[in-house]
Amino acid sequence: MSSQLAPIPILNQNASEERGEIARLSSFVGAIAITDLVKTTLGPKGMDKILISASNPNELIITNDGATILTKIYIDNPAAKILVDISRTQDDEVGDGTTSVCVLAGELLREGERLVAQKVHPQTIISGWRMALEAARGALTTSTNDNSSDKDKFRQDLINIAKTTLSSKILHTEKEHFANMVVDAVLRLKGSTNLDNIHIIKKSGGSLRDSYLDEGFILEKKIGVGCPKRLENPKILIANTAMDTDKIKIFGGKVVVDSMTELSKIEEAEKEKMLLKCKKIVDHGINCFINRQLIYNLPEQYFADNGVMSIEHADFDGIERLSLVTGAEIVSTFDHPELVKIGTCKLIEEVMIGEDKVIRFSGVPSGEACTIVLRGATSHILEEAERSIHDALCVLAVTVGETRTVLGAGCSEMIMSKAVDELAAITPGKKAMAIESFAKALRQIPTIIANNAGYDSSELVSQLKAAHYQGDIKAGLNMRDGCIGNVEELGIVESFKVKQQVLISAHEAAEMIMRVDDILRAAPRRREPMRH
Amino acid sequence: MSLAFDEYGRPFIIVREQQAKERLKGIEAHKAHILAAKTISNIMKSSLGPKGMDKMMVSQDGEVTVTNDGATILENMQVDNQIAKLMVQLSKSQDDEIGDGTTGVVVLAGSLLEQAEGLIEKGIHPCRIYEGYEVACKIAIEHLGSISDSITFSKDDLEPLVKTAMTCLGSKIVNRFHRQMSEIAVKAVVSVADMERKDVNFENIKLEGKEGGKLEDTQLIKGIIIDKGISHPQMPKTIKDAKICLLTCPFEPPKPKTKNSIEITKAEDLKKLGDIEQQYFIDMVQKVKATGANLVLCQWGFDDEANHLLLQNGLPAVRWVGGLDLEKIAMATGGRIVARFEDVSADKLGKAGLVREIGFGTTQDRYLSIEDCPNTNAVTIFVRGGNKMIVEEAKRSIHDALCVTRNLIRDNRIIYGGGSAEISCGLKIASKADEIPTIEQYAVRAFADALDAIPLALAENSGLEPIEALSGVKALQIKENNPHLGIDCNYKNTNDMKAQFVFDTLPGKTQQFLLANQVVKMILKIDDIIKQSGSPDDE
């Protein structure tokens, strides 16, 4: 019978299955490929990537930020997707270390692949890694330094952290300038980690050096026509209300008129209603009115006549920040002026940044908010600068919350790998191989940093290792001179929380991929051809 | 036999369109079924036990799931074969009924069919095979009852429950913290369990996950977490002694169900209508305010005006709360969900000691946590983890652990794991088999052999020499007459599962045997498949 030879389909026709060695191979290859892609961006001498959008070839991004690179590229390999996801989570959670986490996970898998090739069972590798992780975490925690009690020292720590973060980015030429800027901005928050209060404005033109921290709040909007352009000690009302005509919200309401005169009457009534609303607003005793929505000509006119400065179309973020800094509440009804909180500041004025007019609110009562004005030659530089500043701000905000710091420049990786190696030496059985591989993966980070800087990584890393074993626990890579140096003197400091998160997330992801022995791929959903 | 001939020798067509149909019958059909079922069980085999591996699934839209949970794997596998679909169903019903052992049941069914294949080749009729299996299954279940052990626990001594949950979580990725995870699961179940009725309402346990942080940050919260924020940025973010008004009606003028239209013909009407509208909003807010509420949770939205009125009246509000969440909150806070503003009154308000908005990391995501509820029955397990896949997998694992704990509260009998129960049942069945005088003897013996598949797979996954390990344990069980000996998957140098604290619930194991046996019976009974091939949408 022919049916004996006929294949029996079990899975869906287009679905596929990869098993055992092949599945593992495909995971490893995918993860390592992703790692190789981003690893050249690591460290102070890391290189940038150009990303070109598939839908719009004119839109390009030049970046050094791991999370940005990874989330923008199209990936089909499931293991690679896991790495992208940890990088994204790292970005959401602590904001920095997005490249390191991906590289560490990839290097762990590279070591894992070698062990699997030597016929070590993945579960043995996993249990070895778990022991290694504990050892590494312990070593990292003991190597921390906490200067939070000493204000000046802590500030120095923060500046060092900011400099370390910024040194790999496009801003590194001006890192002193920017580090001071972001530290000032974060310290203004007085311990709060809400970065909403720091507003970043990009204006092309000028050079990066011209960027500055403005102690007030800057709104990229125009003041209404005919309104005063400068107000001292203004009374500000912030609103979110329609300023064209109020729609009728009662269900089924509809205007039906039978003559032109009626129509004009209704128009008149609408206008009157609007003016009444304006009057109510003015009756709050304000001289500055900021609305989230548009302000049409008629009310604008009315406000101008009454000497009220009106600012229209400040978006959601804008009004929320403004209400935060001026202390005003966001108003949508105007019947109870006595209940409404009116905001204030010292001075509102229209200022020029580059060629654009913006509105500056200075001397705001809640001194937490500030604005970072970025200047730069092209929009790409500005965007990359914004990403870098965002990273630095995140790291600093995290550090303000968790004040412990660790040394960078491969030093803390060395400390961890030394602890893990020592554990491997006293562990009997095959697990020791896995533990050793963990240490090796950790040492890959300084190796990559040195490689990216164009130095002899094998020489440097072995020197570094030797220095650590000789008891110099502050030794790290000096990438300016290409030698081993004291990291504390070099001032390369990183946040403990970021480092720890990198270690744990990378291990979690590597373990997850290691545990997989079967990949089942569903048939891709059939898409309807797009009709234009 | 789709073609017959009448008495004049003319062909007489019984099944039309021969070419368009595929037909398998007799032994061929049996073999095809068994092959399909075996394929599925082979995929699952490597996930069994504490050293089992995970599967990575890529969904239709390219989403990645990494899991060790049998039911989840099969559900996402997009199986096309009919018999394979039966196996998927099998795992699903185990999941619905017991919530754990979804992998084991498939492996067992696969192994039973494998044994049946051998018997069919010997020429034993499938009917006799499944009759023999029935007999064997009955013996096994009786035996399970006799080797089961009951554990005692109370609200103060949860240790046995935690130990069982740990067995359940042992095979999952969370096993790095499985002590902590099991404690969370057990505490969650115990706090919602009704010890009198021995029942647990899972609706009171909410599993919420958020990527970021690490697995050990997972915590049990006595209260409810919803992924919504307070509607207005300036409303207070922390409310103590909250009196919560739960609404399922929107803050807007009523929408009559009947179609209506209000025609505005005069300018005065426009004004009047505007005033009425304003009055609506004010009335609504006033009604809520009058009850003394200080937090409004609304299933619907409300516009800027209503939002601001609420702010002005000091009523923090949350909009677009999901219907299920609202019900849970109602249960936890003892409030009543109100559908019309006319019905709002003070006695319908829910109460909570503390309501606060929490944010994570550098993102804008905000969660609302409602704690210290009068009805402590509602709890939330908040799972954290380094990436989305791990959070999802941890949620699934905790769900399994919850199920196991619930089963123990319902029925406190346990049996020992590590394959010990299967080995012991196998031995019992094998000894009974010889007493059966008919052909079924072979089938019964085959059942005993099939049971070996579980300890074999356990041993293989743990990196032990499978046959050596199994025969060693078998001999030891007979020698010491101790049914608690199993495969030492964790290299603890003892085969005694009682000492290793590896437990399974009795109903779980019984259910596994029964379900697997039923499905096998069903599959063996089919001897013909007629498949309509070339259906129009298949191209």
From TrEMBL, chain A:
Annotated localization: Cytoplasm
Return one Gene Ontology term, BP aspect: protein folding
Q: Which PROSITE patterns does the record associate with it?
A: TCP1_1, TCP1_2, TCP1_3
Q: Which Gene3D superfamilies match?
A: GroEL (3.50.7.10), GroEL-like equatorial domain (1.10.560.10), TCP-1-like chaperonin intermediate domain (3.30.260.10)
Question: Does the keyword field hold Cytoplasm?
Answer: yes
Q: What is this protein called?
A: CCT-beta
Task: Recite the UniProt keywords alphabetically.
Answer: ATP-binding, Chaperone, Cytoplasm, Nucleotide-binding
For this UniProt entry, the molecular function terms from Gene Ontology, in alphabetical order, are: ATP binding; ATP hydrolysis activity; ATP-dependent protein folding chaperone; unfolded protein binding
The entry's function note states: Molecular chaperone; assists the folding of proteins upon ATP hydrolysis. Known to play a role, in vitro, in the folding of actin and tubulin.
Name the domain of life this protein comes from.
Eukaryota
* A Gene Ontology cellular-component term: chaperonin-containing T-complex
Under the heading NCBIfam families, the entry gives: chap_CCT_beta (TIGR02341), thermosome_beta (NF041083)
TrEMBL record, chain B:
Query: TM segments?
Result: none
- Which InterPro entries does the entry mention? Chap_CCT_epsi, Chaperone_TCP-1, Chaperonin_TCP-1_CS, Cpn60/GroEL/TCP-1, GroEL-like_apical_dom_sf, GROEL-like_equatorial_sf, TCP-1-like_intermed_sf, TCP-1_chaperonin
- Family per UniProt? Belongs to the TCP-1 chaperonin family.
Tell me, what does this protein do in biology? Molecular chaperone; assists the folding of proteins upon ATP hydrolysis. Known to play a role, in vitro, in the folding of actin and tubulin.
Protein name in UniProt: T-complex protein 1 subunit epsilon
Q: Which PROSITE patterns match?
A: TCP1_1, TCP1_2, TCP1_3
Query: Is-annotated flag, keyword Nucleotide-binding?
Result: yes
Concerning Pfam families, the annotation shows: Cpn60_TCP1
Which keywords has UniProt assigned to this entry? ATP-binding, Chaperone, Cytoplasm, Nucleotide-binding
One GO MF term on file is: ATP binding
Where, subcellularly, is it found? Cytoplasm
Q: Name one GO biological process term.
A: protein folding
What cellular-component terms does GO give this entry?
chaperonin-containing T-complex
Q: Which CDD domains match?
A: TCP1_epsilon (cd03339)
